[in-house]
């Protein structure tokens, strides 16, 4: 990331190098997480900002601070205590927090912290909006700055979080966590982010009966009043922060697709559960198709589990087929078979289908009359190249199913994606055994490499963190008016291009998350170029040359490094 020091971009308003203007001094400065350096303040800044006597005399480097912080982190007795320690550090110093956070990015303990939000509460972070007080939304948002102060908003209503369900007001922590990832993985400046929770009540009886619960203690509001609340938030956010990108997170199945469909043609917005999951899974699938030499316009895909994630993946696959071939979206959707609790989705299910499921419901007469529509029957009938699991049904991909699949295709592409690991539809080692080492595998959680027949296979993890931050970075830097389907396809292509399997068929289908900063630059570049080509970009002077574009992007990515402070009025 050496381009961050490149003087040719020093004129950019969002350049992330050089001194920071600071109007604080003394104790107020030490209480500002944005400007505080703690023991790392150099002598000249201690004098200029009246810090003498407020700090021990020894001046430390950031690396020395990280070493001390890691010792303190490691001494905490359990994962939840470690999570609480990191939250406390974030409140003290953003730079130290992010420098420390990268090795322990997005730990599973975030779910524990969300469930215990009201009990662990110390200091509010983010914007709390509630459905009883809709007239004050604009006033609430005004606490976080004016038009040019916010680039990236993550908003959640807390109905379906991390596999732990309805968490009400605790959803603010998932908004915070997603923004942490955008900073770590794509350099979105933390000072220009806004986490938001839309508190509509909760149907979680445990929370409703908890005297310490901090959210609205009432059943979750639905219907017209709910839609009005979401719409009032979106309109107020656009008035207050007209260029901000809105990221919807962990909305419930009845609402997630509906809300995305309503707003994606009006504002720059994104739903990670639908589009992010779809993009990263599609990138793995595209790499697998390259290895197996199957053409996109011929691929047959079965999606097992057709909730928000499953239909999001199906939608992204259909969009890409339509974009990359001469097929319409409707024709492309016919290459995908979706299964949910009732079995194969067919049109006769009518109003029981969600908005996301409707495009993938098959004509009933396509299916042999009287034949079962369970997963094994569908595999026998369809002979899929690709089997994707988002069902949360552990071991659903049985030996019979996988062996049946392997009868008809040379390289079965199997993605058990349900989280956490205990809910995976199959274990990678079993998939290699049942296919004599021919399977191409990606999972939703990290797995150790598998050895079979004397060969070691690296298991790709479909981690959204390799994808959604780069998409957001591209949208923010280009100030795109919308996030188009072509922009998402460009993101998929950029992620696929980094696949180790393209060079070595035994390599992972996706790159390692450790390379995520460079991956985010690739994705942002693809998104920005597409935004310019489609006439959606609103920023002048975006470089047309690929190398200069990468430098331009990197110069505007925030780094966890202390910058010199200069006095400001």
From TrEMBL:
Cofactor note: Divalent metal cations. Prefers magnesium or manganese.
GO molecular function, one term: NAD binding
Catalytic reactions on record: oxaloacetate + H(+) = pyruvate + CO2; (S)-malate + NAD(+) = pyruvate + CO2 + NADH
InterPro entries xrefs: Aminoacid_DH-like_N_sf, Malic_enzyme_CS, Malic_N_dom, Malic_N_dom_sf, Malic_NAD-bd, Malic_OxRdtase, NAD(P)-bd_dom_sf
Domain Malic enzyme N-terminal: 90-264
Domain called Malic enzyme NAD-binding: residue spans: 274-532
UniProt-annotated binding residues for (S)-malate: 419, 463
Gene3D superfamilies (UniProt xref): Malic enzyme, N-terminal domain (3.40.50.10380), NAD(P)-binding Rossmann-like Domain (3.40.50.720)
Protein keywords: Metal-binding, NAD, Oxidoreductase
SMART domains: malic (SM01274), Malic_M (SM00919)
Keyword tRNA-binding included in the entry's annotation: no
Residues reported to bind a divalent metal cation: 249-250, 273
GO cellular component: cytosol; mitochondrion
GO biological process, one term: malate metabolic process
Active site, per annotation: 106 (proton donor), 178 (proton acceptor)
Cofactor names: Mg(2+); Mn(2+)
PANTHER family: MALIC ENZYME-RELATED, NAD-DEPENDENT MALIC ENZYME, MITOCHONDRIAL
Family: Belongs to the malic enzymes family.
Identification of the protein by name: Malic enzyme
Taxonomic lineage of the native organism: Eukaryota, Fungi, Dikarya, Ascomycota, Pezizomycotina
